[in-house]
TrEMBL record:
This is Molybdenum ABC transporter ATP-binding protein. PANTHER family: ABC TRANSPORTER I FAMILY MEMBER 10. GO terms for molecular function: ATP binding. It comes from Paracoccus benzoatiresistens. Residues 291-356 form the Mop domain. SUPFAM superfamilies: MOP-like (SSF50331), P-loop containing nucleoside triphosphate hydrolases (SSF52540).
Length: 362
């Protein structure tokens, strides 16, 4: 199921002219304040009628200005999650979850138990929203959105109102949803960390236009787009799998560029993980380094070099993955780095975005 969006709309002083596709998985709309993210979301939701445009989910047409089609919001089959959970205060969690259900598909209790289990909210069913933490409330809001059997989930900064521990608590559930709900999730964010952890696809919005779009690993490691995410946050995302828990407390991970070792990762063997390797944490050596403390040294090949305000971003190919290194222009010259050169990437730090599925929820 694919969401396709093409919109044009002029406000005084601001013109939206944006087109992108969001496949199943989580598509992050990323851009500065005022770039047009909320306007896009409103147009998809049916809260804004664009002067021209087309919005479809699979075969269903939500908006088509040429054909005069503009479904009202309540007929679009969209589940919403906002910054604030907006639960009904006088209803219990169970009643809140079933609220949309009364109208759509009565008696689907198997759905309820599946969603309750996926979100870990079984022990909260009899409570009212006032007795929930912010993170718990957001989990209930996610559950309510899914139980309305939407074709599409819209999330507008759903974590923005939560403190860091509450964010951490809810991220694994968003990951489950992304991997198992089988529907497109359109997710507004201006947090690079959230995008790196959650997004499948990233759509960059600037001045009402889509300036770039693509898979998250490409967007964060492409020197053309990566700097837009903030210079200290850019780097590679690597797919890995837990390979073994070693006796000395390290966890061995398998990646397509070879094994990596991390301080113990609390995940079972076989669990898939997303690793983040920030460009500033990667050193480049032209010969295999000897006698260094770094555990993770991977053979790689230089793909290209891009000047980036005093430093150089070096794209390295390792296996079928891309690693980005930020080094000084002086080092790049001293090492005679050039496309095709075989090098070693020395990873000073690797962090795990845990909870891809199955373990971090406990
Ligand atoms: N109804 C309106 N009338 C006039 N201008 C509008 C209207 N709605 C939005 N805009 C303008 O469109 C631009 C984009 O706003 P929008 O809220 O979509 O940005 P955003 O990327 O979601 O920002 P933020 O991250 O701060 O929420 C802004 O300049 C805003 O002032």
């Amino acid at each position: 199921m694919m969401l396709k969006v093409a919109l044009r709309h002029a406000f005084p002083g601001f013109t939206l002219d944006a087109a992108f596709e969001a496949p199943a998985g989580l598509t992050a709309l990323f851009g500065q304040s005022g770039s047009g993210k909320t306007t896009i979301v409103n147009a998809v939701a049916g809260l804004l009628r664009p002067s021209s445009g087309r919005v479809t989910v699979g075969d269903t047409v939500l908006t088509d200005s040429d054909r005069g089609i503009f479904l009202p919001p309540h007929r679009r089959g969209i589940g919403y999650v906002f910054q604030e959970a907006r639960l009904f205060p006088h209803l219990t969690v169970r009643q809140n979850l079933l609220f949309g259900h009364w109208f759509t598909a009565p008696g689907r209790t198997s759905d309820l138990s599946r969603v309750v289990e996926m979100l870990g909210i079984g022990h909260l069913l009899a409570r009212r929203p006032a007795a929930l933490s912010g993170g718990e409330r957001q989990r209930v809001a996610l559950g309510r959105a899914i139980l309305s059997h939407p074709r599409l989930l819209l999330m507008d900064e759903p974590l923005a109102a939560l403190d860091q521990p509450r964010k951490e608590e809810i991220l694994p559930y968003l990951e489950r949803l992304r991997d198992h709900a089988g529907l497109p999730i359109l997710y507004v964010s201006h947090s690079t960390a959230e995008v790196a952890r959650l997004a499948t696809t990233v759509v960059l919005v600037d001045g009402g236009r889509v300036t770039a779009a693509g898979p998250v690993a490409d967007m964060l490691s492409d020197p053309a787009t990566a700097p837009l995410f903030g210079s200290s946050d850019i780097g590679a995302i690597l797919a890995a799998r837990v390979d073994a828990q070693e006796a000395d407390g390290l966890t061995r991970l398998a990646t397509s560029s070879g094994p990596l070792f991390l301080p113990r990762v609390a995940a079972p063997v076989g669990a898939p993980l997303r690793l983040r390797i920030l460009a500033q944490d990667v050193m480049i050596a032209t010969a295999a380094p000897q006698g260094i403390s770094a555990l993770n040294v991977i053979p790689a090949r230089v793909r290209d070099l891009t000047d980036s305000g005093g430093s150089v971003l070096v794209r390295l190919e390792a296996g079928d993955q891309v690693i980005l290194a930020r080094i000084t222009a002086r080092s790049a010259r001293a090492l005679h780095l050039a496309p095709g050169l075989a090098v070693h990437a020395v990873l000073k730090a690797v962090s795990v975005a845990p909870g891809t599925i199955g373990f971090s929820a406990g």
